[in-house]
Amino acid sequence: MKLIHARFSRLALFLLVSTCVSAQSIHAENQAKFPIKKAPVVLISIDGLRPVDWLSASAEELPTLNSLREHGYFAQGVVGVTPTLTYPSHVTLITGSSPAVHGVYSNTSFDPMNINQVGWYWYASDIQSQTLFDAARKAGLKTANVHWPVTVAEPIDFSLPQIWRTGHEDDRKLVRALSTPGLQDELEKKLNLSYAQGIKEDLEEDLNRAQFAQALLELKHPDFSTFYLTALDHNQHIYGPGTQQAKDILKTLDKTLGEMIVTTRKVNPKTVVFVVSDHGFSTVNYDVNLIGAFLQNGLIQYDVASKKVTGWTAAPWFAGGAAAIVLKDPTDKAAYAKVKAVLDQLSNTPELGIAAVYEKPTISQRGGNPLADFWVEFKLGYEMGIDPTAALVAPSKSKGMHGYSPSNPEMQATLLVSFPNQKKGANLGTVDMRDIAPTMAKVLGVQLKNAEGHALKLN
To answer: Which of the residues 37, 177, 221, 313 has the least number of beta carbons within 10 Å of its own beta carbon?
Structure first.
């Protein structure tokens, strides 16, 4: 059932959408003076939204994002974490910590034998840092969520967590069973609409989830809420960033975002709205078959007839524009030397597009995956392939990718924050992603433990 958008005037948007936050860096002093002492927070993520997509947009092109920029505070860019993938980044956004600290190291769990049927880091039990949900709950605040990553079994008062398996109708039972008891039924009855399947990430599903998010706000009046939209990322993987398809998706999401903010302010005019993304995007042209290279060097055993991995000594772990390399036995010096020799050979083959290979000390310094013995970073335009039988380098199956080093400007993410009644915009420069969660904690008036970041200073 399609979501029908009601029109709203640009004047109403101007009056109801405004922004104010600030940033210096991870090292900024935690002495922010906010324009309000304590307020509810709504956090809305548009997966894959690049700053370049909205920084120069006109009111005619993207009225909501334009209003947020013109009448509030915005970051020129947000430097993300290693890897610049959806799940690690979204956990950073609610913990203020890097993956090495918060424990969600990739989108998918490490599974070299392909036993888990492409299982993702869905479960909040994998998070090792305190989340804003937990901090808010301990302060006696009500929390809510629609589709935010890594929220299965997170202690949220009103939650529709993100999870899927096959797209079969049983997935609906799975989400209902893992959601707050009775919540999905209550919202579906209010909206006369079935909740979208978790595996589906196109525009229709975003519009569906946005409607559920607004209904949740209206019914429950939470103090801290997270809402996650996926269609821009989904289509940039298919068509590439900056394409007409991506622009069309963003125009619709901009309108949806405006409606969500209007609903938020109607429910509670004091609410502070954070609009974020998790990473940027790059056009990709080539798949690099690291799995095949490891297979050819005897580090992975693969049965072609059954299309199954039958054994492994070391294996790549997909991270889009990067890859973790994990040894089965990290103390096996011979295996380590062999893997290093293979990676050195691959790095010295220019057509494979390998930008750098790091070992554990550098991985740790960058806040990356502590399970990785090596970390492979690709140049923009290259990604790790997933077909072990493909050529060593082949045309990519996707047109857009992320996961590359956060030092690449193309990987920078988005931050806009709307405080009530702010009238003038200000460019806050470049922000560290780890500072966003402590800033929200400051607005909520809660204590967020173990965060690496600090609440951002306001001008």
So the answer is: 37
Omega prior to 83 cis, within 30 of 0: yes
Tokens read off for 384: 């790790």
Percent of the chain with pLDDT over 90: 87
Plot region of 301 (φ>0 → left; ψ -120 to 50 → alpha; else → beta):
beta
Q: Could you say which residues of the chain have pLDDT below 50?
A: 1-32
pLDDT at residue 459, as a whole number: 53
Q: How many CB atoms lie within 10 A of CB 26?
A: 16
How far apart CA 402 and CA 84 sit, in angstroms, is 6
Pairing of strands 286-288, 382-384: parallel
Q: What is the pLDDT of residue 17?
A: 39
3-state secondary structure of 446: coil
Separation CA 358–CA 356 (nearest Å): 7
What are the CA-CA distances from residue 50 to residues 80, 241, 344, 408 (Å)? 12, 9, 33, 12
Instruction: Please tell us whether the domain made up of 286-397 is placed in CATH 3.30.1360.
Output: yes
CATH for 13-280+410-444 (3.40.720.10, 3.40.50.720, 3.40.228.10, 3.90.105.10): 3.40.720.10
Q: Are 198 and 162 in contact (CB under 8 A)?
A: yes
pLDDT computed for residue 35 by the predictor: 60
pLDDT at residue 144, rounded to an integer: 98
